[in-house]
Amino acid sequence: MTEENEKVGNVSQSRYEQIVAELRGVVEQQTQGQFTIGDRALEIEPIRPRGGVATDHAWSVDLSLTQLAEDIGLAVKTVKTARWTASRWPADKRRKEASFSVHKVLASIDNETERYAAIETPPAGKTRWTMDDARRRTGVQVETPVSPQEKVTAIHALAQDDKVAAAVTGDLLRRPQVAAKVAQTDKVRVVEEFTRDEAVAASAATSLLRRPDIAFKAMSDDTARFQVNHAQAERSRQAREHFEDTSPVAPAVRQIDRAVEFLDLVTACHSFVAAAGRTVPGLRDRQLSDDERVIVHENIALMRATLDWIETAVDTGKVDMDDELARLLRGQ
Predict the structure, then answer these.
(1) pTM of the model
(2) What distance in Å separates the CA atoms of residue 330 and residue 110, rounded to the nearest whole number?
């Protein structure tokens, strides 16, 4: 087939290339427009340093940016995002061949030198960044998964609903090779049969998890670890609700809780810093695999979003999380 006869969709290859060139110009204009919004929002409300870290006085910033958003007919979240992204990319570090969305994703790279170098160096074999490439670089879930780990992550995200998960599991187990891997030995099947009863399963799981080697292997499974953490949180929530509903001293305890919550928050921060201080030095001279780096970057993105949430709660008393953080906490 000659080049003239090759088609992309309903247009010839040559026409497609014309459309791409035209739309790249449109994207460049949109990128410039978004950065202009961000620059002007920064002019109105600069991001102020506090303790060596760039941050905001949210109580006044929200008022100014909300007024600006209303006056120009945009959502305040759009203005805030443009402002933050512009703050991460000085004018001389922006690249017109990269979309504003790519700049926004790569803006989450904390180290300035690393961030500026990243925008200059698209992945090997490519001349420009795509959104999925930027997401991979920062450890965020991609829209079009390629690697096995990316596909597994996407499946988990789509199967959050129990009905969807059950349907997918049933379909997969109809494939002989999959079913054979799931039930690798007769011993596994026998154990599963004996533990169909929830009381028996709970007792067996409790006994097995007392064996350190089994507990370690079980907690290496992301799904198992998530379920254990979820169960612990749910048990604490139920115990708390029962206490508040039935205890005559609950009102007095609520007053104490304000101080306790402060101490818990400070303790959590110290615990995180201490854990990082113990763990990170162990990475010296160790080269993580691509899948391992993706997992670590995903967790870093979650921690970064959570820290922003904590800072907003501390500064404003508002504990409502935005859609992006809620999505991350759900593992999507």
Answers:
(1) 0.49
(2) 24
